Amino acid sequence: GAGVSQSPSNKVTEKGKDVELRCDPISGHTALYWYRQSLGQGLEFLIYFQGNSAPDKSGLPSDRFSAERTGGSVSTLTIQRTQQEDSAVYLCASSWRAGAAQETQYFGPGTRLLVL
Amino acid sequence: QKEVEQNSGPLSVPEGAIASLNCTYSDRGSQSFFWYRQYSGKSPELIMSIYSNGDKEDGRFTAQLNKASQYVSLLIRDSQPSDSATYLCAVNEGNTPLVFGKGTRLSVIA
């Protein structure tokens, strides 16, 4: 596709369950980012991948959060033992290369997660 | 800690007026500057980018950059109710990913 895609678009889960969120970046983009946005708040950086390098996990809020990027393309964000405070919109973005001059990030539509 | 600061607003302007959105950043080595628009319930979309000092115009939008003052702004001329959204400033501060401000909420009153 032409843009960043994410699935599912909405996810409702029960507290304590694990969830997986998927992101498919723009073809050819080597950098992929995950953000979280709680209602009425700004973007909270979680993690980013640049090519095959080790990801920058500095924004992950706890060890319940992890992410993988297979084959330098699709990424999965996993939240284990979900808590109600994990309820938010999870946004994925991709760019040609992280930190490159004139780098532009393009966002997917997001996954709205609700933990009951 | 590299920071990008924006007034959270809301900034209210009447329809047809000029809306002025401001952003300051902490790292003098910053190279690239972006404005994203985010409608309620939607994801951010890129509306302007600017890389050198001065003004850059695109339709009703003008981005202004002053690296000496570490200041970037977005002007929206002839504001329309459809411009009501949150505007995010983002800065490329060297060899790291973009750093985003928390956004300014703009409300254009018909």
Percent of residues in helices of chain A comes to under 10%
Straight-line N-to-C gap of chain A:
33 Å
Structural class of chain B: mainly beta
CA-CA gap between termini of chain B: 40 Å
- Indicate the mean pLDDT of chain B: 93
Identify the overall geometry of chain A.
Answer: globular
Tell me the number of helical segments of chain B per DSSP (H or I, 4 or more residues long). 0
Count every beta strand of chain A, where a strand is a DSSP E run of 2 or more residues: 10
- How large, in whole angstroms, is the Cα Rg of chain A? 13 Å
Helix-and-strand structural type of chain A: mainly beta
Poorly predicted parts of chain A: none
> Could you state the order of secondary-structure elements of chain A as H and E?
EEEEEEEEEE
Radius of gyration of chain B: 13 Å
Q: What kind of assembly state do the chains in view correspond to? A: heterodimer
Kindly state the mean pLDDT of chain A as a whole number?
A: 92
Count of alpha and pi helical runs of chain A: 0
List the helices and strands of chain B in order: EEEEEEEEEEE
Give me some keywords for this one.
heterodimer, A: 116 residues, mainly beta, six-stranded mixed beta sheet, B: 110 residues, five-stranded antiparallel beta sheet, 0% helix
Question: How would you summarize what this structure contains?
Answer:
Chain A is mostly beta strands. Chain A has strands at residues 5-7, 10-13, 19-24, 31-37, 44-50, 65-69, 75-79, 88-95, 106-107, 111-115. Helix content of chain A is 0%, strand content 45%.
Would you mind describing this structure in some detail?
- The complex is a heterodimer of chains A (116) and B (110).
- In chain A, a hairpin with a 5-residue loop joins strand 6 and strand 7 (75-79).
- In chain A, strands 2, 4, 5, 8, 9 and 10 form a 6-stranded mixed β-sheet that branches. A 4-stranded antiparallel β-sheet of chain A has the order 1-3-7-6, with no helix packed on it.
- The radius of gyration of chain A is 13 Å and the shape is globular.
- Chain A is built from no helices and 10 strands.
- Helices cover 0% and strands 45% of the residues of chain A.
- Chain A has 116 residues and is mostly beta strands.
- Chain B is globular, with a radius of gyration of 13 Å.
- Chain B is an all-beta fold and 110 residues long.
- In chain B, a hairpin with a 6-residue loop joins strand 9 (85-92) and strand 10 (99-100).
- In chain B, the strands form 2 sheets. In chain B, strands 2, 4, 5, 9, 10 and 11 form a 6-stranded mixed β-sheet that branches. A 5-stranded antiparallel β-sheet of chain B has the order 1-3-8-7-6, with no helix packed on it.
- The chains are: A mainly beta (116), B mainly beta (110).
- Chain A binds chain B through residues 31, 33, 41-43, 45, 48, 56, 89, 91, 95, 98-99, 101-110, and chain B through 31-32, 34, 36, 42-46, 49, 51, 88, 90, 92, 94-98, 100-103.
